[in-house]
């Protein structure tokens, strides 16, 4: 069985993105054909995942995956909020992301989204997508500014540090409200010196930003089952 995890969590790099269409810098950073090809190439899953029944898969990029049994009790939500508050130095330090700008299909990708896409192809044309491997260990190897949300249920994690490649891709669910989860990442990003831009496209809230050559892109949505789904991509 194969998956397209990179393509599934970076869909708007190819069809839409953040920023003004007239932004010369964004247009100058447009993806080259090799990067686009890397995003569209199918990636092999971890062998342990390959034997799973697709009907029970938590995240497959199809949008039809089953949602795991997550503790959505008030005490579970409060515990997650408390820990998130600790990780930003106290709940009073939590800053909600600015209102999202709605994007159309012809919007130009932001620099962060393009950087995340280009990370699939390292300098010299090395296809980093082919080197990605799936293991839960990658969830513990995210940049310090962007840990998995406290007490979240990690469903899939992938990444690579091989050669000149540096990618992290983690998908998880949490019972905490979407705006609170995005506030956590917005606060962490700004506190670590990253830029932050908040948009909506194709039913997703997208928070993205950069610091130097490092980039992050966070896709989030609130599901009817009462949980928040997050797909987090970082590059360095």
Tell me what you see in this structure:
This protein has 236 residues and is α+β, with helices and mostly antiparallel strands. Helix content is 26%, strand content 25%. It contains 8 helices and 12 strands. An 8-stranded mixed sheet has the order 3-9-10-11-12-8-7-6, with helices on both faces. The protein has a two-stranded antiparallel ribbon with strand order 1-2. Strands 4-5 form a two-stranded antiparallel sheet. A hairpin with a 5-residue loop joins strand 11 and strand 12. The two termini are 29 Å apart. About 23% of the residues have low confidence.
What's the β-strand tally?
Answer: 12
Summarize model confidence as the mean pLDDT.
74
Output the structural class: alpha+beta
- Label the overall shape: globular
- Assembly of the depicted chains: single chain
Strand percentage lies at: 15-25%
Radius of gyration: 17 Å
């Amino acid at each position: 069985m194969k998956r397209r995890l990179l393509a599934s969590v970076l869909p708007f790099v190819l069809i839409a993105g953040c920023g003004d269409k007239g932004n010369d810098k964004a247009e100058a950073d447009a993806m080259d054909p090799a990067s686009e090809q890397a995003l569209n190439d199918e990636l092999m899953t971890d062998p342990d995942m390959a034997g799973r029944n697709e009907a029970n898969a938590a995240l497959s990029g199809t949008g039809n995956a089953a949602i795991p049994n997550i503790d959505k009790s008030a005490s579970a939500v409060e515990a997650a909020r408390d820990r998130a508050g600790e990780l930003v130095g106290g709940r009073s330090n939590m800053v909600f992301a600015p209102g999202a700008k709605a994007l159309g299909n012809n919007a130009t990708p932001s620099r962060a989204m393009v950087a995340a896409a280009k990370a699939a192809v390292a300098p010299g044309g090395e296809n980093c997508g082919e080197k990605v491997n799936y293991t839960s260990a990658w969830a513990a190897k995210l940049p310090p500014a962007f840990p998995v949300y406290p007490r979240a249920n990690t469903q899939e994690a992938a990444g690579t540090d091989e050669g000149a490649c540096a990618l992290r891709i983690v998908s998880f669910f949490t019972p905490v409200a979407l705006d609170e989860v995005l506030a956590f990442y917005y606060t962490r990003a700004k506190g670590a010196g990253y830029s932050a831009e908040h948009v909506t496209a194709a039913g997703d809230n997208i928070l993205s930003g950069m610091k130097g050559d490092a980039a992050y892109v966070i896709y989030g949505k609130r599901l009817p089952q009462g949980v928040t789904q997050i797909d987090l991509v970082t590059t360095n």
